[in-house]
């Protein structure tokens, strides 16, 4: 049995913990928004109406920096471990589990979600008549984006549950 350590406290620890949690919340919100936006795009494909401006604005070319805030999760997590004065360690199962889940978040984001989002940005930016057709590739990219975003949300929620429970 490992020795019992006190729960870390102090203003600096609390601030880093808040930043860690904020990265999770922003990651969840931006990823859920990606899933909803991709699903909305799929519903509107092939419609005779032009895509609504907010939807077009979402798919303007550029990096989804808000989504990348998820990278702050492990960064601030490592800082929390370092500041914990031995209360937390990289060898604890819940810490390892969190890192594995985050690895899944990063793989799904970088391998599926954000590439599908970029492909949609390119196609929609090139669509000058503002009436995208429901061709297989556009629908496929939107479907991939939606599924990947849902998978990321599930992984982020699982990580949150694991971090709160600390089994």
Protein model, in words:
The protein is an all-alpha fold and 167 residues long. It has one domain. 69% of the residues lie in helices and 0% in strands. The chain contains 5 helices and no strands. It has helices at 11-44, 53-58, 72-83, 93-126, 136-165. Helix 1 (11-44) packs antiparallel against helix 3 (72-83). The chain starts with 10 loop residues before the first helix and ends with a helix. 23% of the residues are buried. The model has no long low-confidence stretch (mean pLDDT 90).
Features:
elongated; 167 residues; mainly alpha
Radius of gyration from CA coordinates: 19 Å
**Beta-strand percentage?**
under 5%
Largest sheet: none
Poorly predicted ranges:
none
Order of helices and strands: HHHHH
Write the layout of secondary structure elements.
Elements: H1 11-44, H2 53-58, H3 72-83, H4 93-126, H5 136-165
Helix pairs in contact: 1-3, 1-5, 4-5
């Amino acid at each position: 049995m490992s020795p019992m350590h006190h729960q870390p406290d102090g203003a600096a620890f609390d601030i880093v913990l808040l930043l860690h949690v904020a990265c999770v919340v922003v990651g969840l919100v931006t990823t859920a928004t990606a899933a909803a936006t991709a699903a909305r795009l799929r519903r509107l494909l092939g419609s005779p109406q032009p895509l609504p401006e907010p939807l077009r604005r979402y798919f303007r070319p550029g990096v989804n920096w808000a989504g990348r805030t998820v990278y702050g999760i492990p960064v601030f997590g490592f800082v929390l471990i370092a500041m914990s004065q031995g209360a937390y360690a990289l060898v604890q199962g819940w810490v390892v589990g969190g890192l594995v889940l985050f690895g899944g978040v990063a793989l799904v984001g970088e391998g599926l979600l954000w590439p599908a989002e970029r492909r949609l940005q390119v196609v929609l930016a090139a669509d000058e008549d503002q009436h995208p057709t429901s061709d297989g590739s556009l629908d496929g990219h939107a479907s991939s984006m939606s599924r990947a975003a849902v998978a990321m949300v599930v992984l982020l929620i699982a990580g949150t549950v694991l971090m709160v429970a600390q089994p």
